[in-house]
Amino acid sequence: MTIHTIGTVQYGISPIRQAKGFWDKVRRHVQNAQQNGVKLLVFPEYLTAHMLGTLPAMETPEACEYLDARTDEYMSTFMQISRETGITILAGTHICKDGADFVNAAFLFFPDGRIEKQKKIHLTPEERKHWPLAAGDSYAVFDTEVGRAAILICYDIEFPEGPRIVADMGAQIILCPSYTDAAAGYYRVRYCAQARAVENQLYVALSGIVGSLPHVPQIDVGYCQAGIFAPCDRPFPANGILASGKTNQNALVTYPLDFGLLKENREHGNVSPYFDRKQELYDRYRVLSNKR
Length: 292
What we know:
It is built from eight helices and 13 strands. The protein is an alpha/beta fold.
């Protein structure tokens, strides 16, 4: 089976004077990925919010309007970058209008011009309270050169039902763009990402923001150690960590993924949590719970 290299970004935010500074940084990460043979690249949640650093601090509704106004630029630039490099790029998430509502959406750009979209499904209490966002309500699995991929955005990975749904839909890897501003938030996402890899016997790639923008309240500081994770079982490392970055350093993390190893794990692993479910039992208790 073909082996393809995946890359996930620890994206460092810092003061910038104009949008060009943001795009220059994005292109440097992509160029680094291209030099390392990456075929699928993951940027973090709230990626384009870095451009808020070009302006004085603003209230969140105003920030949403500003980011939405840059949607055409976002779409056309990532389309061009993907086409020029031959890399499929999960371009983090971007705040934009979807009908009458703002959404926090991830966009997956393919070298052939195809674009796929996944809205964040579970909004955090902070997002529900301070951001004028509407939640997504559907899951999807996308065919990529690397493998069949699903996108679960940050908080989405903390709910086991969604990852199990996309696993049942045929996902081989979950892409998890995240933004966490403190160690506790990061470890919630990190440990849940690794749990999802174990439960569903698939890969998970985690990306996040690091650094600080003190005058931008929407992403004033980031905490992350990006990583690529597998089940904690043979033929993978005992801790399930295939690759990880150095905490809070702007960096690219890469790993050559072999999906044949996932097949081996599902067929010959010491445990088989994906197949050993007792769905009838779970459904019975769900019915009982709904009757209360």
